[in-house]
Amino acid sequence: MTIDQMPIARNPSVMFSEVEQGTVLMNIESGTYFDLDPIGSAVWALLESPATLPELCAALVARYEVDSETCHADVSEFVKELIAVDVLRQG
Question: Can you tell which superkingdom this protein's organism belongs to (predicted)?
Fold first, then answer.
């Protein structure tokens, strides 16, 4: 299966807090933290429930001035980075 087909979900071991400029995440398993900008925070918020990449992009395209191709490329890269550091999980 490709990244487009499998649901993406938050790692339940990641704690988070919304701050003025976005969202701060902390993976309690690894002790690492991440600072998300407003767009990254929007992706995180949308993943309150598992979603596929096309579902994420549809919601973001409806909310922001971005075309679907750019959104897909950017969100795909972002999601892959967060999966690699175990902030998000797929499947």
Answer: Bacteria
